[in-house]
Amino acid sequence: MAHIRLVKPGEAAGRLKEIYDAAIARAGKVFNIVRTMSPNPPVLEAAMGLYMRVMMGPSGLSRKERELVATVVSRANECFY
After folding, report:
1. How far is CA 57 from CA 13, 17, 61, 67, 80, in A?
2. What is d(CA 36, CA 25) in angstroms, rounded to the nearest whole number?
3. What is the pLDDT of residue 2?
4. Which positions ≥6 away from 20 have C-beta within 8 Å?
């Protein structure tokens, strides 16, 4: 079985700490999906940039509608959201 070492918020340093701090400011905690990418901060940063553009950028859908789509897709994929 594959194992990814998830960096805990108290262990983060440098750019990863900055990304974690922004996540905490935005959501109140660092979600596991963010921690999963913690071994590679440049990838995490790119993924968060994409997420922010999709969820908060200009769109014909409201933020609530985008969250609902994300929730339904996660449920259909049997993924905890």
Report:
1. 29, 24, 10, 13, 24
2. 19
3. 66
4. 9, 12, 30, 34
Cα 9–7–12 angle (5° rounding)? Answer: 50
Which pLDDT belongs to residue 60?
96
Q: For the chain, which residues score pLDDT lower than 50?
A: none
- Nearest to 16, CA basis, from 29, 28, 26, 7: 7
In angstroms, the CA 49 to CA 33 distance is 14
Which alpha helices (DSSP H) does 1-81 contain, by range?
Answer: 14-27, 32-36, 41-56, 63-76
Task: Name the nearest CA neighbour of 60 among 71, 49, 50, 69.
Answer: 69
Could you give the CA distance from residue 55 to residue 46 in angstroms, rounded to a whole number? Answer: 14
